[in-house]
Amino acid sequence: MGSFFTLTGVTLVVFMIFVAPIWLILHYRSKKQVSQGLSETELRSLQNLAEKAELMADRIQTLESILDAEAPNWRNRA
């Protein structure tokens, strides 16, 4: 029973000395990055992805209209 408390105490000390400070530093660093918002590069990437999504939506709509004309029952096929 004594070795259990010793092991628990050592584990707790190691956690408090090494793991907890690193955990806190990483936690608050990520909070700071979130509060700063998107960087210029991230914003450009997001805008680029949004443009590509719009183009893809247009293509899908065109393909669906072609399929509707060529094979009217294509949506019912599972």
UniProtKB/TrEMBL annotation:
Top-level taxon in the UniProt lineage: Bacteria
Stretches that traverse the bilayer: 6-26
Record's keyword terms, sorted: Membrane, Transmembrane, Transmembrane helix
Name this protein carries in UniProt: Phage shock protein B
GO-annotated biological processes: phage shock; regulation of DNA-templated transcription
Gene: pspB
InterPro entries for the chain: Phageshock_PspB
